[in-house]
Design brief:
Number of strands: 38
Strand order of the largest sheet: 9-10-15-14-13-16
Number of helices: 25
Largest sheet: 6 strands, antiparallel, barrel
Helix content: 25-40%
Shape: globular
Distance between the termini: 43 Å
Structural class: alpha+beta
């Protein structure tokens, strides 16, 4: 068979269209760059397996658990067309270059392409950390084969996640709620958020007091804080444990009485400087960004969510502005170090650049192979001003952050001095009081001229003394005291995690991969395990149930160290030091005294679902996680104050926006006392005889009728159907009649609505009559208020009460008027938050057709259902707008009809 003629074409495959366009500019003629658009194949759902495989050892997971955990892959339905296109391009190519990302996921995509396309031409693996001309040419000089060890590590992780989720999630469905999911990393991250909330719930605050004063010298005045009383250090928040108990010895615990009396006794005291201590101050720059630190800092400084940060970074990378954004390394290439040092010297002066380049190494517990740090792309960096016109607002802000951090990392230390002044006096009541003040003066800003790292919220009561210049005083100098006042404090509970602080903690513990943190944090919010309250992450009560079940019955699988060790094992597989199949066998089947996942699932025993879904809140009051959300239940009989009836187990709904740590015993009692009755019998419908009740539902109060079940006699009298052969068919299960219901008006309550009002509500929609053309007109209540309906034409009316009073004539009058669209009187905004940092336009919250939404006049985003308007902060509004911008405009697809085929001419 003759060999294929050379075409001179080379096919290059990357993951994304944006990346392909950028690379194509640098490769020149002869290269065809195509995008696979991510993975082309994956594990199917077991239900999608061919019928002959469903009853085999592949049937449960689409993984053959009896034959070295061999996966069964299928090309995704939406990728079949793409695969056909790639195969067609490959037919005319002399070589195939697989240029997907250089991490495990990218290596796996390259391997899947190789397996599916089955090329008969030379194949080269091509990787690069940035999309620049220099980087692409360097990559062409360093081609290699697909790394089997990296592929094995990715495949092992994929199968591991399938085994974990498919074995454990069904237990959650049976014992907590349908639709829940368990995940190797997501469940551990959920546990971290729940553990922090448990700490806050168990926390007991302690009160302590101190003094502050303003002190003046000839060279200026300064503020100082009481530090020592009669030789004993004054107690601060750090001296108490989370039970509110003072744990430090030999400290002076001041209460309000002691503090106020001391302040009064010091009003006329003779204060003098007792000591002045000066120490040199040095501060080093932070390392260049890794994936984790970029997410943290973008969260602190730009208010971006982790997900938004990674979406924006992806676009910057694919368009050639920054290096690859999924990396554990903080190291810079020699070219990058040279570029950063050169730019620092040009912009800030040669004195700002140290003699020797700075070298950074990763400190993460789970650092793996990958790339260098995230930095501006190229062997010479473009300044933010040079790229400003090419980037969107959020892209520019993130690029500027990366540029500043990179340049600052190669700049000199910030230098200065820190002075501490101790001053004191003997009070009128004989107590000796010593105050302290500290301040840092920066004499050489060094890297601070370019960049300063942000900080997360922390516990304690330290006052920042940086950049505070103290007056020039000496020991023995007299000081004029003023404004000596007693100040009370309460110890604070551990702060809730933010996305930034949770990311930092995950990296510190070595849990998961930094490249997956954004998607994991997004997943636990999408699953309803965690919601945002401002920037804080608050767990739901269902998350408490899930974590409790996993802790009790799958202990290892939500253990922090066990999960981190699994990442270490995956790293060994990636380095070729272990085999994925053997590791999966040990994980699933166990070995010796170490039970595997299968053994644990098969020997769970009886799980008490009620106990798992119950949290004691107060004496006799328990929180239950039910099918329709959390509620409180009292185990003590209570008396209804209105009816005098004894209720054996009273219940009360828990507001959705009430955080778990806010549900104190006192709050639980209050909710029970103010709870509206769950159900109230109003009477019988005189026409049907059905009982009518008013209820409090998950989505508001409503009335409904109770339709009784059919009696045995009625069932026996159902008409009998027969087969064609004359034999009777089995009796059908009677179709249950749908009860009439109606939502209560805003002015109505469950305990006050009457039977007549209920019957009116259940009769809606109300038919008013017909127009001249015979079209029926009805009036009804809807999500956006009461309205008239004629065919597809709807018109709003004034109030809910008008539903039962409006006449046909009034309705016809409304329909005779042109439909008003946007011509209503201007409605004031629900809230205002000032100018947006990107668009610089005013941020307001408005009421829209689909609920309240946030807008700056350019970008709109609906207020999330889990965010109460009263709790919506400026920071959260800015973050939501940033996330919406990061997603870009919604792409609308236009369907065009194919032109009609012309009939063939008759011969």
């Amino acid at each position: 068979m003759p060999s294929k003629a050379k075409t001179g074409k080379k096919l290059v495959i990357v993951e994304s269209p944006a990346k392909s366009k950028t690379i194509a500019k640098y490769l020149g003629e002869g290269f065809i760059v195509e995008a696979s658009i991510g993975h082309i194949r994956d594990l199917p759902q077991p239900s999608e397996l061919p019928a002959e495989l469903k009853k085999t050892s592949l049937g449960k997971f689409a993984v053959d658990v009896e034959n070295d955990f061999k996966p069964y892959y299928v090309v995704s339905p939406d990728k079949k067309k793409k695969v056909a296109e790639l195969k067609a391009q490959l037919k005319d190519a002399d070589a195939l270059y697989l240029a997907t990302d250089g991490d495990r996921e990218g290596e796996a995509i390259a391997w899947h392409l190789l397996e599916v396309l089955k090329p008969k031409v030379p194949v080269y693996r091509m990787t690069f950390g940035e999309i620049t001309k220099e980087a692409i040419h360097r990559a062409m000089d360093n081609l290699r084969d697909v790394d089997a060890a990296l592929v094995d590590a990715q495949e092992t992780r994929r199968i591991l996640d399938r085994l974990y989720g498919y074995e454990i999630s069904p237990v959650l469905w049976r014992k907590v709620a349908r639709g829940l999911s368990a995940g190797r990393v997501q469940s551990v991250v959920t546990r971290m958020v729940v553990d922090r909330e448990r700490e806050r719930m168990a926390f007991r605050s302690a009160s302590y007091w101190d003094l502050t004063g303003q002190f003046g010298a000839d060279s200026g005045s300064f503020k100082a804080k009481l530090a020592v009383v009669d030789g004993a250090k004054v107690a601060t928040g750090r001296d108490f444990n989370d039970d509110g108990v003072l744990t430090s010895r030999n400290v002076a615990h001041l209460n309000e009485e002691l503090a106020t009396s001391l302040a009064a006794a010091l009003q006329d005291a003779d204060f003098r400087v007792r000591s002045v201590d000066t120490k040199p101050y040095t501060r080093r720059p932070a390392a260049p960004f890794t994936t984790s630190t970029l997410q943290q800092e973008a969260g602190r400084k730009l208010r971006f969510s982790s997900k938004s940060t990674m979406q924006i970074a992806q676009r910057l990378y694919e368009n050639g502005y920054i290096t690859y954004m999924r990396t554990d390394s903080s190291a810079l290439s020699d070219e990058a170090v040279t570029a950063a040092r050169r730019q620092a010297a040009e912009l800030y002066g040669p004195e700002y650049v140290p003699q020797s380049p700075r070298v950074y190494t990763s400190k993460a517990a789970n650092a793996q192979e990958a790339h260098e740090a995230i930095r501006p792309a190229g062997d010479s960096f473009r300044t933010p001003a040079q790229v400003a016109k090419q980037l969107s607002g959020d892209e520019f802000r993130l690029y500027e952050l990366i540029w500043k951090r990179t340049v600052a990392s190669q700049m000199g230390d910030a230098k200065g001095s820190t002075a501490t002044i101790r001053l004191g006096a003997v009070a009128a009541d004989g107590r000796d009081a010593e105050f302290s003040a500290s301040g840092t003066v920066i004499t050489f800003p060094g890297f601070l001229a370019a960049y300063e790292e942000g900080k997360d919220e922390s516990r304690g009561d330290d006052d920042s003394d940086e950049a505070r210049r103290l007056p020039n005083v000496a020991k023995g100098d007299g000081l004029a005291a003023s404004e000596i006042i007693a100040v009370g404090h309460e110890t604070s509970p551990p702060p809730r995690y933010t996305e930034a602080s949770l990311t930092a903690e995950l990296e510190k513990k070595g849990i998961g991969r930094p490249s997956t943190y954004a998607s994991t944090i997004s997943t636990i919010q999408d699953r309803g395990y965690v919601r945002k309250q401002g920037s804080a992450l608050v767990p739901s009560w269902i998350a408490f149930s899930v974590v409790r079940l996993l802790e009790q019955h799958f202990t290892d699988y939500v253990d922090y160290e066990f999960t981190a060790d699994m990442e270490g094992d995956l790293d060994k597989i990636a380095n070729g030091q272990a085999a994925g199949a053997a590791w999966l066998k040990h994980f699933y089947y166990g070995e010796d005294a170490d039970p595997g996942l299968l053994s644990i699932v098969n020997n769970l025993g009886e799980i008490d679902a009620r106990e798992i879904n119950s949290v004691p809140i107060a004496d006799g009051i328990t929180l239950r996680v039910g099918k329709f959300g959390p509620y409180l239940e009292s185990s003590l009989p209570t008396v209804d104050p209105k009816t005098g009836e004894v209720v054996e187990s009273a219940r009360a709904n828990v507001p959705e926006d009430l955080a778990p740590d806010e549900l104190t015993a006192q709050k639980a009692v209050e909710l029970m006392e103010t709870a509206a009755p769950e159900e109230r019998v109003l009477g019988a419908d005189p026409h049907t005889g059905h009982t009518v009740v008013a209820k409090n539902g998950r989505y508001g109060a409503y009335v409904t009728e109770i339709i009784p079940e059919m009696t045995e006699e009625q069932l026996a009298n159902q008409p009998v159907e027969y087969y064609k052969n004359g034999k009777p068919k089995p009796p059908k299960k009677p179709v249950k009649a749908k009860p009439r219901t109606g939502s209560l008006f805003k002015s109505m309550t469950v305990d006050a609505v009457t039977l007549d009002e209920a019957l009116q509500l259940m009769s809606l929609p109300r038919v008013l009559g017909q127009d001249a053309e015979g079209n029926p007109i009805t009036v009804q209540n809807g999500r956006f208020g009461p309205y008239l309906k004629k065919g597809t034409d709807s018109r709003s009316i004034g109030s809910e009460e008008e539903i039962f009073t409006i006449t046909l004539e009034q309705a016809l009058e409304i329909y005779s008027q042109p439909k008003q669209r946007g011509a209503r009187a201007a409605v004031p905004p629900l809230a205002e938050f000032g100018p947006d940092p990107v668009s610089e336009k005013n941020i307001v919250v408005k009421e829209g057709r689909f609920g309240p939404y946030i807008t700056d006049g350019i970008t709109n985003i609906t207020v999330p259902r889990d965010t109460a308007l009263e709790e919506l902060t400026r920071e959260r509004a800015v973050e939501l707008l940033a996330e919406k911008r990061a997603k870009g405009p919604v792409k609308r697809t236009t369907t065009r009809k194919a032109p009609a085929k012309k009939a063939a001419a008759k011969k």
